[in-house]
């Protein structure tokens, strides 16, 4: 059905399907399609006569819509009459169940969307073959306009699957047709003693499906997770969804107020409606007798505080082998037959890019926030204007449902942006009065779990808050282990069991992490402990050691794995640096920035790096080696930022200090770095100074037998000669550098090839230039060096423009502009390497602004891959010429 022909507004939906279609198919085999065709013809004839529109069919089911409730009822009655008098073969009568519901007809594509469609389908599913049922909404519109020989009979109010409010259902009693049917197939057909939760259930589709599958093969399923993760809400939804599979009923026993294990049987009996007078003095025996032989689903909520009662559960299942137990607990029960299912936080939007309302629609955490915000502020909408604040808020709350619901309740007073700015545990209060007291505020929810810990676990819990984004076991032992009241691994296991700490595998090493809202709670408690400062200092030392361990690998072929590890630990490195700066520990701060600056450069975080090295160098009292390291870092960052004056200041200060305090390696490195101090207004003098410093560095590296150091010297010589337009020598020394750099040095080889390309461009040797530039780009892309790739792309733009390929140049220019914004790179060497004026408002931008814009929207990988492809095309073209 074409969507434009379907009615909208208030419409009436009709759902039909054949009862026992599988039985008919098995019985009649090849004759069944004929029965199906006859059935379809009768349905379509009745629908067409009343002006109905067929929306879709699936197997033997019809979905039809009418713009009039009266017409819909007339069509359904006519169809039932036609089906009843049709000449079906013996034992082949086709009996069809039908359901009508009137509601909002909103189209999404070529079909209807919204709650009313689901309600209509659920109502139809309650009926039996030959039965026609209607909702009160349809009955109200039909009024007295009933087809001849038809009466409407109220069957009562019923709870339907996935719907919160009970639905009053009517039956159409049609003269001459069967009017007596078994009870409707609703949730009320069996005992269903679970809480009625009025708010809708958001997300968790994958977890619900997994839980349903697990309950087919396990008899005790424990849903675990931290307080506020939504365990209870999911258990209620799961029990409601599966109610029709348990003839004995579904019962929900809340253990919130139960503090003694021996009182658990009494709580279950209360949930099952047993009267207190009947329990006598032996509730355990009475419970076993009551459930014996029955097929039940019993939900045991909040089991963490009565874990001693866990041995009761196998007894229950021995008495009722067909029953299942669904448990919610912050800790697993550790009993035979238990299957644990951890309930993760809701799906969160990624950090990358600026989000829009459309891009956030599919994330569960955002969906929950928006729905709960509308509950307190009906006109609240997710817009492009507040999308970033909502995304930030849900991420800051780690996708924890309770935290999101409490934050959403504040939308009545504050917009999302203001909630983000004021986010703290005290703000996350004021939950609904129907919530358990421990869920009224987030802090009391976490405190509930904290109070269940022993002294050792509490101390460890507080100390772990120093880790931002979690930590690996080695760092946790070094930071938290000394002076702990008990065994660290025992305490850690207890925290994991109580869902206060999560465990994952990163780099094949176990990593332990708190949700941010839980970490904030723990940090408040660490702050008042006497060892708080000592813990922060040990944390800073641990991440200084990790950074120093990574530093030698950041320019090698193994650097990607170290970059990945530093990325995982970036928040901890920040925290370590902040601690060193705040405590005035100059040596730690300067060693740390010296070790990690290359990571910031590679990741395109140069603005951040500039701030950090400046703050670290502002501290006095560091040992000379620490200050040398920081000065070299500051010079490197300034070089990449394009600040010639600062580069000279830092590199010359480092050289002066190395000459006074440094060892051979530090002196060689300082001379090498100082060779990049270059004054374009005094080319000859700068070249002379640069080459003199490089000769000192070369002699020292030769003495130490350092081939990589020699390669760096040759490469810097190549740059120095190039700056004075001696491009043949540039190529000569670049090739010497390539001989020194092994295959394990992709960074250095990439730069050497780039320098060859630069010289060849200036010598008019385009084929060699593009070949070397493609090699350089490939090497730098393989190690994800965003800052360096910016310069490579600048070269690509220049080459394309020089060859008359202005539109290709414009496309690359767009990608370059996007990369430069991300990385903050703007290195000084570009000022004397290429015609950089084309970058901003030159001829390329003016000629093809749309191509520039298209390039800006591309990913870095797409931009660089396109540039490499262009270089290869140019090379082939020039070779053919």
Notes on the protein architecture:
- The structure is a single chain.
- The chain has 881 residues and is of the alpha/beta class.
- 54% of the residues lie in helices and 11% in strands.
- The strands form 3 sheets. Strands 1, 2, 3, 4, 5, 6, 7 and 8 form an 8-stranded mixed sheet that branches. A 6-stranded parallel sheet has the order 9-11-12-13-10-14, sandwiched between helices.
Give the terminus-to-terminus CA distance: 60 Å
Proportion of strand residues: 5-15%
Structural class by helix and strand composition: alpha/beta
3D shape: globular
Feature tags:
single chain, 881 residues, alpha/beta, eight-stranded mixed sheet, six-stranded parallel sheet, 38 helices
Layout of strands and helices, then pairs:
Elements: E1 9-18, H1 21-28, H2 32-49, E2 53-58, E3 61-66, H3 69-85, E4 96-108, E5 111-113, H4 115-125, E6 132-135, H5 136-142, E7 150-158, E8 167-174, E9 192-193, H6 205-217, E10 220-224, H7 231-241, E11 249-254, H8 264-271, H9 283-291, E12 296-301, H10 312-319, E13 324-329, E14 338-342, H11 357-360, H12 364-376, H13 387-396, H14 401-408, H15 416-421, H16 442-450, H17 455-464, E15 471-472, H18 473-480, H19 488-497, E16 502-506, E17 509-513, H20 516-527, H21 532-550, H22 559-568, H23 570-583, H24 586-602, H25 606-617, H26 624-641, H27 644-661, H28 664-674, H29 683-704, H30 707-723, H31 727-740, H32 746-763, H33 766-782, H34 786-802, H35 806-823, H36 843-847, H37 849-856, H38 860-880
Parallel strand pairs: 4-6, 9-11, 10-13, 10-14, 11-12, 12-13
Antiparallel strand pairs: 1-3, 1-4, 2-3, 4-5, 6-8, 7-8, 15-17, 16-17
Helix pairs in contact: 2-3, 8-9, 12-14, 17-19, 17-20, 18-21, 21-23, 21-24, 23-24, 24-25, 24-26, 25-26, 26-27, 27-28, 28-29, 29-30, 30-31, 30-32, 31-32, 32-33, 32-34, 33-34, 33-38, 34-35, 34-38, 35-37, 35-38
């Amino acid at each position: 059905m074409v969507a434009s022909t379907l009615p909208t507004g208030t419409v009436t939906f009709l759902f039909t399907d054949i009862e026992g279609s599988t039985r008919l198919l098995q019985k009649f085999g090849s004759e069944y399609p004929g029965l199906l065709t006859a059935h379809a013809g009768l349905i379509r004839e009745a629908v067409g006569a009343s002006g109905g529109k067929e929306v879709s069919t699936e197997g033997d089911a019809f979905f039809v819509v009418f713009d009039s409730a009266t017409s819909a009822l007339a069509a359904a009655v006519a169809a039932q009459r036609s089906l009843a008098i049709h000449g079906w073969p013996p034992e082949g009568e086709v009996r069809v169940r039908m359901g009508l519901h009137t509601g909002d007809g909103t189209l999404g594509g070529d079909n209807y969307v919204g709650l009313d469609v689901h309600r209509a389908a659920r109502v139809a599913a309650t009926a039996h073959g030959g039965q026609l049922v209607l909702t009160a909404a349809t009955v109200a519109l039909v009024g007295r306009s009933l087809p001849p020989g038809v009466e409407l009979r109220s069957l009562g109010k019923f709870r339907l699957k996935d719907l919160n409010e009970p639905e009053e259902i009517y039956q159409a009693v049609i003269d001459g047709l069967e009017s007596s049917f078994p009870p409707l197939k609703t949730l009320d057909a069996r005992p269903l003693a679970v809480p009625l939760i009025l708010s809708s259930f958001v997300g968790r589709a994958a977890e619900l499906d997994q839980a349903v599958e697990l309950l087919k093969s396990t008899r005790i399923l424990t849903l675990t997770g931290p307080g506020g993760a939504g365990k209870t809400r999911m258990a209620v939804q799961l029990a409601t969804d599966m109610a029709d599979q348990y003839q004995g009923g579904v019962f929900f026993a809340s253990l919130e107020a139960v503090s003694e294990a021996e009182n658990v049987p009494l709580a279950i009996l209360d949930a099952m409606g047993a009267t207190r007078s009947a329990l006598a003095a032996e509730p355990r025996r009475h419970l076993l007798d009551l459930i014996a032989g029955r097929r039940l689903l019993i939900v045991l909520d909040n089991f963490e505080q009565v874990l001693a009662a866990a041995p009761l559960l196998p007894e229950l299942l021995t008495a009722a082998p067909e029953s299942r137990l669904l448990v919610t607990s912050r800790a697993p029960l550790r009993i035979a037959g238990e299957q644990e299912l951890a309930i993760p936080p809701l799906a969160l939007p990624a950090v990358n890019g600026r989000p829009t309302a459309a891009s956030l629609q599919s994330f569960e955490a955002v969906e929950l926030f928006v729905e709960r915000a509308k509950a307190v502020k009906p006109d609240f909408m997710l817009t492009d204007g507040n999308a970033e604040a909502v995304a930030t808020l849900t991420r800051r709350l780690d996708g924890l449902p309770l935290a999101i619901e409490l934050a959403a309740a504040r939308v009545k007073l504050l917009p999302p942006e203001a909630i983000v700015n004021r986010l703290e545990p005290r703000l996350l209060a004021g939950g609904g009065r129907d919530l358990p007291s421990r869920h009224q505020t987030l802090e009391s929810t976490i405190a509930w779990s904290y109070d269940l810990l022993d002294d050792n676990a509490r101390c460890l819990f507080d100390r772990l808050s120093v880790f931002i984004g979690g930590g690996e076991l080695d760092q946790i032992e070094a930071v938290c282990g000394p002076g702990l009241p008990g065994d660290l691994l025992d305490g850690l296991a207890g925290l994991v069991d109580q869902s206060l700490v999560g465990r994952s595998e990163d780099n094949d090493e176990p990593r332990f992490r708190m949700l941010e809202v839980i970490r904030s709670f723990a940090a408040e408690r660490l702050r008042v402990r006497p060892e708080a400062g000592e813990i922060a200092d040990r944390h800073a030392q641990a991440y200084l050691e990790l950074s120093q361990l990574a530093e030698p690998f950041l320019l090698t072929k193994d650097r990607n794995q170290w970059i990945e590890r530093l990325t995982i630990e970036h928040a901890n490195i920040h925290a370590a640096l902040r601690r060193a700066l705040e405590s005035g520990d100059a040596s730690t701060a300067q060693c740390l920035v010296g070790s990690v600056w290359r990571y910031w450069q590679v990741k395109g975080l140069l603005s951040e790096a500039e701030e950090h090295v400046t703050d670290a160098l502002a501290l006095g009292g560091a040992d000379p080696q620490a200050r040398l390291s920081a000065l070299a870092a500051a010079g490197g960052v300034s070089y990449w930022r394009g600040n010639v004056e600062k580069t000279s200041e830092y590199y010359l200060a480092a050289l002066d200090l190395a000459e006074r305090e440094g060892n051979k390696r530090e002196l060689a490195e300082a001379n090498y770095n100082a060779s990049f101090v270059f004054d374009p207004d005094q080319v000859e003098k700068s070249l002379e100074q640069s080459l003199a410093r490089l000769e000192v560095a070369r002699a020292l590296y030769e003495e130490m037998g350092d081939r990589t150091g020699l390669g760096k010297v040759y490469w810097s010589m190549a740059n120095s000669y190039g700056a004075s337009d001696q491009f043949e020598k540039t190529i000569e020394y670049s090739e010497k550098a390539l001989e020194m750099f092994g295959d394990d040095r992709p960074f250095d080889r990439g730069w050497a090839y780039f320098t060859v390309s630069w010289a060849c461009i200036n010598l008019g040797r385009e084929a060699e230039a593009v070949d070397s530039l493609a090699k350089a780009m490939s090497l730098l892309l393989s190690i994800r060096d965003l800052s360096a790739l910016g310069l490579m792309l600048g070269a690509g733009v220049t080459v394309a423009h020089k060859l008359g390929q202005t539109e290709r140049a414009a496309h690359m220019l767009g990608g370059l502009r996007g990369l430069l914004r991300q990385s903050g790179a703007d290195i000084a060497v570009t000022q004397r390497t290429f015609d950089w004026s084309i970058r901003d408002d030159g001829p390329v931008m003016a000629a093809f602004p749309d191509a520039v814009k298209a390039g800006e929207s591309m990913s870095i990988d797409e931009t660089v891959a396109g540039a490499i492809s262009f270089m290869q095309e140019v090379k082939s073209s020039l070779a053919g010429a």
